[in-house]
Amino acid sequence: MADSIPLNPVRKNPTKIAYYNAAKRYRYSLEDEPTNLDEMPLMMSEEGFENDESDYHTLPRARVHQRQRGLGWFIIGGWKILCGSCCECLTRTCWRKKELKARTVWLGHPEKCEEKYPKNGIKNQKYNFFTFVPGVLYQQFKFFLNLYFLVVACSQFVPALKIGYLYTYWAPLGFVLAVTMVREAVDEVRRYQRDKEMNSQLYNKLTVRGKVQVKSSDIQVGDLIIVEKNQRIPADMIFLRTSEKAGSCFIRTDQLDGETDWKLKVAVVCTQRLPALGDLFSIKAYVYAQKPQLDIHSFEGNFTREDSDPQIHESLSIENTLWASTVVASGTVIGVVIYSGKETRSVLNTSSPKNKVGLLDLELNRLTKALFLAQVVLAVVMVALQGFVGPWFRNLFRFIVLFSYIIPISLRVNLDMGKSSYGWMIMKDENIPGTVVRTSTIPEELGRLVYLLTDKTGTLTQNEMIFKRLHLGTVSYGTDTMDEIQSHIVQSYAQPSSQTQQSNGSTSSTPSRKPQLPAAPKSAAPKIRKSVSSRIHEAVKALALCHNVTPVYESHASVNGEAESTSAEADQDFSDENRNYQASSPDEVALVRWTESVGLTLVNRDLTSLQLKTPAGQILTYYILQIFPFTSESKRMGVIVREETTGDITFYMKGADVAMASIVQYNDWLEEECGNMAREGLRTLVVAKKSLSEEQYTDFENRYNQAKLSIHDRALKVSAVVESLERELELLCLTGVEDQLQPDVRPTLELLRNAGIKIWMLTGDKLETATCIAKSSHLVSRSQDIHVFRQVSNRGEAHLELNAFRRKHDCALVISGDSLEVCLCYYEHEFVELACQCPAVVCCRCSPTQKAQIVHLLKQHTDNRTCAIGDGGNDVSMIQAADCGIGIEGKEGKQASLAADFSITQFKHIGRLLMVHGRNSYKRSAALGQFVMHRGMIISTMQAVFSSVFYFASVPLYQGFLMVGYSTIYTMFPVFSLVLDQDVKPEMALLYPELYKDLTKGRSLSFKTFLIWVLISIYQGGILMYGALLLFESEFVHVVAISFTALILTELLMVALNIRTWHWLMVLAEFLSLGCYVASLAFLNEYFDLAFITTPAFLWKVSAMTVISCLPLYIIKYLKRKFSPPSYSKLSS
């Protein structure tokens, strides 16, 4: 990677970066912003501090320079910045944003709220009834092109400046505005209907008089809302009560953070213990909640009950919250609303939709400015040649209006109609069924992309885990040998006596480190090599016990909001048909489903025990003594269980190989097998166990409880006690689980990489999972190194880690959201520059806001076009921030696909969407735009020649209907038929994705190609006008007839010259236009002499002029194709 990139401390720019966690930002600024840090460069290496090496850079490259502001700056674009700043200041003053505050919310008493909180309505509309017309007009006239047409059309109301008829200027402009307004109105109505549907959803609200139904939009802060199973949570709430006996429930958060894993939420203990639902109104209680924040993973608050003696205080954390846009997955829940509408976490993390403008439109806008400059220069030259006589200023403006066809208004109409037709073609493509174009203004963007930012869960993967491999050290079982495991399990549980002996043997096989225990005589016995059958039995039992999975039986779901009756538990039949597993990780569900498939089934679980059913139908009960949940720091989870029948205590643990390798007994196969499974794209888990005596467990329990009560360094003390247990564990097995990739993800990613598109994976998932998917999907190739950016929390750490990364070459980067935030805080420019050189980047643990922030950074630092693709509500901000947003309709709902510019049904469709439709849209629009400009420039050249010959008179060459007909019925169909042209067949574009690289360079529409068209227009316009002037005999009307007919024929031949692949509609358009012109000659006696145009002289003169204007261009095209063919023509030949 470029060693030349210096690392310079950059002061934070608060307006540029939105941090999603105010608390973290404050912490960083407190620790890492000493006043002299910018002046004192950081060392490059830790050794440098001792050796006093000058191994650092002091070049102030990344600093924000203060530009000198003069007249040049103002003319170039400073006026825009100044106007923007004034408007922003005015908006801030008039429409001051309400400050978000912490609040006290009384249960069931919205009227007690001290402040007025926002309504709970969802609003995705861009305009309202009053702002629609001004808003649409502003969006249209902010483009130079449209503003120019408006000024020219308005000038025709001044008699001195009037040239021709009013309708020749106002009709096309009115048509463009009408089409735009209708299109925007249809989009707005659709958005309104979608919002209305969401806001009209009914919920049960608990009042003193009982339940009443309220609309989602009428819910207020303080309301007690009942949410049934599979119902969307309408606002941010504190979880008070559930119908589940355990006092907890599962929720699906896929629309919030993109993870389809179910999250466990716990009800407030005080309210869950109340005898009946109505008692919520008989107590006097309130919730204190912190001010609304962006961070969806944290919450701080308190629950207080005042009417008890003493007062009950409960601290509230993230596990007591139910955020809006999540879905209840089990039971019925009751919550008190604390944040509504714009203050909910989901809305705070969603950016407002913006009008996207394509790069091609911006390039054409620049070209029209150049044309306008040329038009003004031409008008000044004409007036100068007149000698600035008389009212020259009026003449100057008349010339500007006269040459206004140099920028044709039909450019806007043709391009808009072209975009609509591209959208129609995309939706009608049978190879990508179900594709929907929601934003018809940017199909060309699909052909210019350099960065593709993709979500992981549901986009690249199906989020369906399948158990693939069990490795016991000496023997490995795959999907085809699972029946062997099943027979071993059946055999183990069919012989209770042998099973007991095996378990005793297994206990003794682990030598105890405490000789004073009663098990000492056994542990001194020599180790007995266990049979394969007993090892399989132990491994399967460990997988069936060590997890956080809860089985749920659909038949016992309650709907009345009350707790289920205890009698239901007694006659529970544990039948397989209605059992469903719930867990916060799909990996764990996959493991438990697999143990069920081999004969050991988890049938029941609560907070203190779990029950397994053997193949023979016997129920085994295990008491859960301790549970150690999985954390991203420990990378492992453990459980201590006591078997009901024997009283044996066993500590089971499973986790990532990096975490488990050091705590299991010595072995020579674990590392190698983990590597083998990872190369297959499997997610690995190492499973181990340790048998504990009663004394060992009692000693541990005492120390563990003591550590949990300590006030200082609680987390450290607790982990130290647990670690004392995590020594010399007996390694049981290694498991391999596969996260099913979407169909054809690997070839699609390879196709995109070959097309020169850099792919970044942004996910809310864990680092290990993200890395595993990056490898299995071939986002990172097998030969590539992966640099995992370690956790950094301050500027010094970030600097050292960036330097370590800078020395790596051609490696993929994996970074977490927290580390990314620190890097962007201090070294934004350097980080982006280094990351952009990586072949692939994986950002894990990203919040929705961070995803959008990364898109903004790439747009800002690279000036390349970005595309974001996702399928969940958490991807909406990213999709809306990107130049081109693609949504996938998947398991996570339609939120992303509705917010996106393009909606597809499968990830593999993106290949054809970009390579074929993106290519065609861009190539066709570039050709169409330049041809329409050529059509305007050729007639303006003829006007200039005509005026210069006739003493620089500001008189139009063609008037009235001739001008309108020229840009409509005579040439419109052939020119517009260019939208059917294609340079490469779809099969060829997909076979050679390298062709896509040329498109990103923008060579199809550049100042070079534009200049070629200008020269063609000047040559043809000059030939046609001078030819007509040389050949006219007696009357001026003959000049008009000859030149106009030759002009129409030239345009039709030029369209034919530009077409690369003929379509029957193109041929029809050519002959239809020619037929329309010939037929209309009979009615144009106001402009043409009918007696003259039927003579042979007219025919030969017109033919001669047309041949002279077109033949050289045909010869040049032939020679170019012969000696310097473009890359695509080499392939097709």
Automatic annotation (TrEMBL):
It is an enzyme of class 7 (translocase). Its cofactor is Mg(2+). The active site is at D455. Gene3D superfamilies: Calcium-transporting ATPase, cytoplasmic domain N, Calcium-transporting ATPase, cytoplasmic transduction domain A, HAD superfamily/HAD-like. Residues 493-531 are annotated as: Disordered. Residues 898-1125 form the P-type ATPase C-terminal domain. It comes from the Eukaryota. This is Phospholipid-transporting ATPase. SUPFAM superfamilies: Calcium ATPase, transduction domain A, Calcium ATPase, transmembrane domain M, HAD-like, Metal cation-transporting ATPase, ATP-binding domain N. It catalyses: ATP + H2O + phospholipidSide 1 = ADP + phosphate + phospholipidSide 2. Residues 111-170 form the P-type ATPase N-terminal domain. The chain crosses the membrane at residues 167-186, 370-390, 396-415, 932-954, 960-980, 1010-1030, 1036-1057, 1064-1084, 1090-1116. InterPro entries: ATPase_P-typ_cyto_dom_N (IPR023299), ATPase_P-typ_P_site (IPR018303), ATPase_P-typ_TM_dom_sf (IPR023298), ATPase_P-typ_transduc_dom_A_sf (IPR008250), ATPase_P-type_domA (IPR059000), HAD-like_sf (IPR036412), HAD_sf (IPR023214), P-type_ATPase_IV (IPR006539). PANTHER family: PHOSPHOLIPID-TRANSPORTING ATPASE IIB-RELATED, PROBABLE PHOSPHOLIPID-TRANSPORTING ATPASE. GO terms for cellular component: Golgi apparatus; membrane. It is a multi-pass membrane protein. It is found in: Golgi apparatus, trans-Golgi network membrane; Membrane.
